[in-house]
Amino acid sequence: MSAVFVPADAAALRGFAAAGVLGSTEVHGAAALVPGADDDVLVATALALWAPRHGHAYVDLTTAAEDVVAAVARAGTDDRGDAQALRAAALDSLVWPDPARWAERLAGSPFVRTVGDHEASPPLDDRPLVLAGTHLYTQRQWVDECVVATALRRMAVGVEPLPAAPLADLLDPAGDQYAAAATALERRLAVIVGGPGTGKTYTVGRLLAALHAGWPGSEAPRLGLAAPTGKAAARLTESIQQALGSDDDRPSVPDAVTVHRLLGPLPDSRTRFRHHAGNPMPYDVVVVDETSMVPLPLMARLVDAVADGCRLVLLGDPDQLESIEVGAVLGDIVRAAADPASPLHGCVTRLRRQFRTGQDSPIGPLADAVRDQHPDDVLSLLRAHAADPESPVSFVEIDDAVDPAPAAADAVRAVVAPAFADAHRAAAAGERDAALAALDPVRILCAHRRGPFGVETWNDHAERWLFERPPSVRDYVGRPLLATRNDPRTGIVNGATGIVVAGAGRLPRAVFRRGGETVDFAPAELDELETAYAMTVHKTQGSEYDAVVLIHPPADSPLAGRELLYTAITRSSRRLVVVASAAAIRRAVTNPARRLTGLSEALAAPR
Question: Rounded distance, CA 282 to CA 264, Å?
């Protein structure tokens, strides 16, 4: 049933590989890390390697079975029914150790170091595993968690006011934005959170203006601006430039870069950087946007490289989808700071006033109701506007058991097809900027990739709305594009969107915006491009659209969750169409994500 080769010395892992739990990395990694270990230790090691691949910092011995089953279900969302049935049968056949006996075996193993609280300086030794109660970490995840906890706690108690011009000249002293900027001036650690459109980057722009105006001497403050992706970095640059205004004497600030680039990646390495504790970054203030997307290992490298006296300002929305890698760092920080005993208490400011959608739009209250886990309010808000074609919010209520297209296609088409058609006409005329401008404001969002609720299906629907016959070539003129990996050669970053236009001699050209310019390439020059009438919600994090259509997954989908629904809703600034069953909405609102990390507890510990 499994294509994973399991060596004889790892025979205890065969059932887990057959069930789709473990891949080659976990199987062979465990066999190499704990050679000769008994079956219980071998299985635990493989699961400790499995955990970070599914976003967790550790595996909990007491809940491992249910956590694994849930993760396998999420991974198999787009599988055919027979594949799902085979996998379910294999999962049911797994034999799990008793948690108490399991913990005893691990505590007595020479491959495991047993600890109590998080350590300020965790040792690096030849034991690959760390056991904290019933939480089993790989040494790397434990060290990263300790590094982040120690650094943030140290920064949180560092009160060293920065010189600046009066903030009251730039921000309303009675507002949350003023309080957030004031925290960044008073403390070495400031965390500014809030939903899209609440002015996080505007606040930072005003903060930077105050610093430039009040900084002593002839030298301007040294600034490092970063975000986890190239696309998010470009948006941060644009937002801060807008916040600074167009005056001739406005301060000059550097363009934002990715966090990796800020740290200075070493050649042929994704985890080692030029800047670290022994060679810190040369900045007075470091600002990181979209921090919810920053995984634990990268945050560890970042805080390790922050120089003594440097200010760290983290921006983000902790209610959005977490990083696709390990941890939920921003959410852990916010949860810890809510505890008055934590040194982080007072470091976090939440911005609540919504500027993007307008005070009268139901989109903001709808997002608030999702965030606060009030399913009745969410459904009431959706249904209140379902029959009003002029409302910013529409609800197409469907039956999860049937294909949603017959019930929803007309409503979806009415919102997105005009923009897609305008983009196609401009692309056919070779009008690059007009084609991008027509395409940018609208998108169909899905959780699944395949099936009636998935991206592939709704891309097909969109093509049928535009063409009498399906396009006969892959890179047809008018095809919206999504880059799915960073391409250093062309400068096109993962998540960038573009469109195919008619070039010279009618040859197709793939057009993208890169920085402040419009660039084009032969489609064959670019790797990993997908059609992007519809996109997964994950791929739209950090983006904003005038109009969004959400094809919500059915209630029994493992992908139906609060963070996904909230993220999708908050991508829209003016028009939102939700295609879902009432049961699926209730399931999502009451189903917050569960990431296994110890960071929040470590940050909340009394000073």
Answer: 12
pLDDT tens readout for residues 124-182: 999 999 999 999 999 999 999 999 999 999 999 977 788 888 899 899 999 999 999 99
CA distance 142 to 177: 35
Separation between Cα atoms, residue 276 and residue 265, nearest integer Å: 11
User: How many Å is the Cα radius of gyration of the chain?
Assistant: 25
Half-sphere exposure of 606 (CA within 13 A, CB side): 0
Could you tell me if 6 and 14 are in contact, meaning their C-beta atoms sit under 8 angstroms apart? Answer: yes
Q: pLDDT tens, 525-570?
A: 887 899 999 999 999 987 889 999 999 999 999 999 999 999 999 9
Q: What is the pTM of this model?
A: 0.91
Q: List b or e across 255-278, with b for residues whose CB sees 16 or more CB atoms inside 10 angstroms.
A: ebbbbbebbebeeeeeeebebeee
Displacement of CA 298 from its chain's centroid (Å): 13
Least Cα distance to 370 among 117, 126, 572, 174 occurs for 572
DSSP state of 324: S
Measured CA to CA, the distance from residue 499 to residue 508 in angstroms comes to 10
Closest listed residue to residue 41, CA positions, set 117, 106, 131: 106
Q: Please, which residues bridge with residue 303 across strands?
A: none
In order of 376, 543, 578, the CA distances from 366 in angstroms are 11, 19, 11
**Hey, what are 141's tokens?**
């995840």
- What residue ranges in 452-584 does DSSP mark as E strands? 480-483, 497-502, 508-514, 517-521, 529-531, 534-536, 545-551, 572-580
Neighbours of 114 (CB within 10 A): 15
Q: DSSP for 141-182, please give it.
A: HHHHHHHHHHHHHHHHT-B-PPP---GGGTS-TTSHHHHHHH
Q: List, edge to edge, every strand of the sheet that includes 112-115.
A: 59-60, 135-138, 129-132, 112-115
Question: CA-to-CA distance for 144 and 141, rounded, in angstroms?
Answer: 5
